[in-house]
Write a structure and sequence with these properties.
With 417 residues, this protein is of the alpha/beta class. The protein has a domain at 229-302. The chain has 19 helices and ten strands. Strands 1, 2, 5, 6, 7, 8, 9 and 10 form an eight-stranded mixed sheet that branches. A two-stranded antiparallel ribbon has the order 3-4. Strand 3 (41-42) and strand 4 (46-47) form a beta hairpin. Helix 5 packs across helix 9 (165-180) and helix 13 packs across helix 14 (286-297).
């Protein structure tokens, strides 16, 4: 039995994602496609447009055989830690044969040799990149320049290569697979469709739209329920106010300089996204700031596992959580249970008995994050609907109906198709 894994956000799922699943199955000969998906929050430092169960159903309808959750600690981290957390989890499962990911070239030879060089000279690369950042270069240009300086054979390294989110993650996946000496084989697929950040739907219906364009369409709709970063503005402002005197440098991705900047401009806070824009500078990108603010909101302080070097981190994701599966993929689930050296959580009610204390603490962060997401969605929609309906129909029973609809993580079963 062959299994291919895909690491994804599906924010939201679209035709390009279905294409990747189909082509991965064809090219690798995989019997099953396993998706490791971010939960309710994504790497950009925002809530996913739809909750993880809706996106799980989309993925299963789109061809995935099973969907697992990437813990929020890694799902909301930089590309390096996002990749390390995800690939390490898949490696611990001991039954994944291939890791499929998109790239701008679709050629592994663009990534494997460079990944090996970057691993070998990790400290030198980091030092050079930091020096170039201090000189005012953007991160993509600094990394491209560092590669050119340290590895003459890559003197033509293009900043555009390092500015593509797909290429950045592809490189980090290859680096982690090599560091782990994993038996998982990388497979890259040429990305098709609109540009990653293209905010507009293509006029040609045969061209796959970007997730950014679909999110723009969804947020412009009045008939769809969704969550955005600005829906979390009150919660974030309260958190920042209560901890301002202590500073925020203990939180993940938050340097002392960024902590000082947050404190300096807090009195000008109007919304989550506007505050990110206000804090943005040559040193701090919008995405870096958004991620940092989300870490603060979710109370994610820098853990021991995020030490400077990979050898010190001994990174280990201590469990894997099942979000959904197809009924005909029972052999895949059996294989996970048989081969994985970390527990599979399919029912939260069983988590305390099968997880270590460390693992349960990490899972508790996921549960808290999902509860925040669901309660924010409830406040945005169900509570508003309650007032509208009681005012129009004098129907207070709707409150009980709406409250009952607030998703409880402990009562949520995996999605089954």
């Amino acid at each position: 039995m062959k299994t291919a894994a895909i690491i994804a956000e599906y924010n939201p799922f679209h035709k390009g994602h279905r294409y990747q699943i189909e082509e991965t199955r064809k090219a690798t000969g995989a019997d099953y496609i396993l998706v490791l998906m971010s939960g309710d929050f994504v790497q950009r430092g925002e809530p996913a447009i739809y909750n993880k169960y809706i996106r799980t159903r989309m993925a299963l309808l789109g061809g995935a055989d099973a969907v697992l959750e990437l813990p929020v600690l890694y799902a909301t981290s930089s590309a390096e830690f996002f990749a390390e957390g995800a690939v390490t989890l898949l490696d611990h499962m001991q039954m994944v044969d291939f890791l499929s990911f998109g790239s701008e070239s679709g050629k592994l030879e663009d990534f494997l040799p460079l990944a090996e060089l970057l691993n070998r000279k990790e400290a030198a690369v980091l030092s050079t990149v930091n020096e170039l950042l201090r000189q005012g270069l953007s991160y993509p240009k600094a990394r491209s320049r560092a590669v050119s300086l340290l590895f003459p054979e890559y003197s033509s390294a293009d900043a555009a290569f390092f500015s593509s989110p797909n290429n950045i993650l592809a490189l980090e996946y290859c680096k982690t697979l090599q560091k782990l000496k994993s038996s998982i084989k990388p497979f890259t697929l040429l990305r098709k469709g609109s540009g990653y950040h293209d905010p507009f739907l293509p006029e040609d219906s045969s061209v796959y739209p970007s997730a950014s364009a679909l999110r723009s369409l969804i947020t412009a709709s009045t008939s769809s329920q969704f969550l955005t970063a600005d829906d979390l503005s009150p919660q974030l402002f309260y958190k920042l106010l209560t901890e301002k005197d202590c500073g925020f440098s203990d939180y993940l991705d938050c340097s002392t300089a960024l902590s000082d900047r947050i404190c300096k401009y807090l009195s000008s806070f109007t919304s989550y996204t506007d505050f990110c824009t206000l804090l943005k500078s040559r040193e701090f990108t919008y995405t870096r700031i958004s991620r940092t603010l989300l870490h603060i909101l979710l109370n994610q302080k820098t853990p021991v596992s995020f030490k400077p070097s990979f050898s010190e981190r001994h990174l280990k994701t201590p469990y894997v959580r099942l979000l959904g599966f197809r009924k005909d993929s029972a052999p895949l689930l059996s294989s996970i249970k048989k081969h994985s050296n970390i527990p599979l959580v399919s029912k939260l009610a069983d988590a305390k008995t099968i997880l270590s204390e460390e693992a349960y603490q990490m899972l508790s962060v996921d549960i808290m994050a999902s509860t925040l997401y669901e309660s924010s969605t409830y406040l945005k929609y169900a509570f508003t609907d309650f007032h509208q309906r009681t005012a129009a129909n004098n129907d207070p029973s709707f409150f009980a109906e709406a409250k009952k609809g607030l998703l409880n993580e402990y009562q949520q079963s995996p999605v089954i198709l």
